[in-house]
Design a protein that fits this description.
alpha+beta, 13-stranded antiparallel beta sheet, 2 helices, 13 strands
Length: 186
């Protein structure tokens, strides 16, 4: 009986998870060339293999980001690799892609603590990318093999996974208290 109660308390604490809806807000970086290949925003860090990051590229305006390299004149290219590292594990990820042109090809790798948990390829004008079947995820790597201008990404929506400590902790402490009471009687 004692072992059963303690085991149940520990299992409930370890297995209980919840999720809260979230999105990535690139507008905090300002519009245009960010001036740096890395940036921290609420819920994630961004790492560009290009010279910089660019907010506002493509049809989604300030909700979009791309790994950017400036070229002569006002134009630049988004045909660079990008990595997004989330602060906490996420699930149910969806986002949009824009500026796709014939010849653009992007392989996306979803990782959980460095281990591959899924892949997706952008090779058409399909706007919505749905990775909700893959999860949990702690980072995304966009391997841009584009021959043209590259792609911008926008409207990242996901659920942040977390362990609800108040309920799980109370259950575990109750089980440990019960064990202490039984041991004290002996």
């Amino acid at each position: 009986m004692i072992r059963t109660t303690a085991t149940a308390a520990i299992l409930c604490f370890g297995v209980a998870t919840s999720a809260s809806a979230a999105l990535l807000d690139f507008q905090i970086l300002g519009l245009g060339d960010v001036g740096s290949p890395t940036a921290d925003i609420p819920r994630a860090s961004l790492i560009s293999e290009g010279e910089s990051l660019f907010v506002g590229a493509g049809p989604y305006g300030p909700r979009s980001i791309c790994a950017y390299t400036p070229t002569e004149g006002d134009k630049g290219t988004c045909a660079n690799d990008l990595e997004i590292v989330f602060d906490d594990p996420i699930k149910n990820l969806t986002f949009d892609q824009g500026r796709w042109n014939e010849g653009d090809l992007i392989d996306i790798t979803a990782l959980l603590d460095g281990e591959v948990v899924g892949t997706y390829t952008i090779d058409s004008e399909e706007k919505k990318v749905d990775l909700s079947a893959i999860g949990p995820i702690t980072s995304l790597v966009f391997d841009d093999q584009s021959e043209v201008s590259g792609v911008a990404y926008a409207n990242f929506k996901f659920d942040v996974m977390s362990v609800p400590l108040p309920a799980g902790l109370a259950l575990m402490l109750g089980g440990l208290g019960f064990l202490g009471a039984v041991r004290r009687r002996q």
